[in-house]
Amino acid sequence: SIIANAEGKISVKRGEQHIAMPPITPLGEGESRLANVYLEGHIPALSQDSLFPVLESAYPETALPRECLASTLLPNAMKKLRSGKKLRLLAWGDSVTNYKRWQTMFAERLRARYPEADIELITEAWPGRNTDSYLAEPPGSAHNYQEKVLDLKPDLIVSEFVNDAGFSAEKTGERYAKLLLDFQGIGAEWIILTPHYVHHSWMGLDSQRQIDDDPRAYIKALRLFAANRKVALADASLRYGRLWRQGIPYLTLMENNINHPNQCAHTIFADSLMALFD
Questions:
Q1: Number of H helices, E strands in the chain
Q2: pLDDT number for residue 139
Q3: pLDDT tens digit sequence for 30-63
């Protein structure tokens, strides 16, 4: 890290090596961080892609309407949270959801926000699979869509599928329209949780800087679908896309340096979800 002390003197503080997740160099008393320098394996020389100036201290929360978005888009869930009636919350997704991190954080924060809330948290996750996989499973299988999602009759479904990110915009619109009809058929409300950034080479990016706009067609289609269909969208992708502005190369938050978010990165999902309830 490039740091300045209380007197304004600038120096370099060396960090710790790690095979996948090098920690941000801690600051001493009176020090402020100006930038982080990311050395990704063996490189012949430093470049702009190695330098991560600290341009903002945190994600800039968007000013929300006076009435929280959940009251408009998730009215039944909000009534149950405020009244103390049981809310059955289903976290549905792939390996990211299988960690049982973001949904646990989300449920804990909801309970803190609404002390009377009675939340039953259920997780249905299938690592390495996507919504295609669920819909293709026959009755009686461990991950049959009808039995493991719809038949649970959740009040609120939060879906996370980074493994759907390869879908075209057209397929995304068609698939998520079907899911919406299915969820409406069982009286469930829905939050779509957009996924994290994965290795930049998989996303058509050549850097971990200047990446505010997620290039994946799936993400663009999800945002359009949610806006047109009035479905709640917790846009974690937006937050991941700004990590570089906080001096953080997002791959340092991946346990495998590719696509599995660590504990800290899961808080970004929880932050995205709670923004709907502010």
A1: 10, 9
A2: 98
A3: 999 999 999 988 889 999 999 999 999 999 987 5
Which segments of 142-197 does DSSP mark as H helices, in order? 145-148, 169-185
Distance of CA 157 to the CA centre of its chain: 15
Phi and psi at 37, nearest 5°, equal -115, 120
d(C-alpha 270, C-alpha 226), whole Å: 19
Going by C-alpha positions, the residue among 276, 198, 196, 267 that lies closest to residue 233 is 276
Return phi, psi of residue 70, to 5°: -65, -35
For residue 35, give the amino acid letter: A
Closest CA to 195 of 178, 172, 219: 219
Query: What distance, in Å, lies between the first and last C-alpha atoms of the chain?
Result: 34
- Look at strands 156-160 and 118-125 and give their pairing: unpaired
Give kind and range of the element (H or E) at residue 189. Answer: strand 189-193
Q: In the chain, what percentage of residues exceed pLDDT 70?
A: 98
Checking if the pLDDT of 66 tops 70, the result is no
Other residues' Cβ atoms within 10 Å of the Cβ of residue 47: 9
Q: Which H or E run contains 248?
A: none
Q: Which residues contact 60 (CB under 8 A, 6 or more apart)?
A: 242
Residue among 24, 93, 9, 22 nearest 54 (CA)? 24
* Cα–Cα dist 163/185, whole Å: 25
C-alpha distances in Å from residue 140, one per residue of 94, 127, 134, 144: 19, 19, 12, 7
* Among 92, 98, 71, residue whose Cα is nearest residue 186: 92
Average pLDDT over residues 167-182: 98
Beta-sheet pairing, 32-37 with 51-53? antiparallel
